[in-house]
Amino acid sequence: MWQYHVRLTPTADRRTRVWAHYERPAWRQPVRHYRGDGWDADEGVREVASLFATDERFEPSARAIALVDRDVLTA
Question: Model pTM?
Answer without folding.
Answer: 0.75
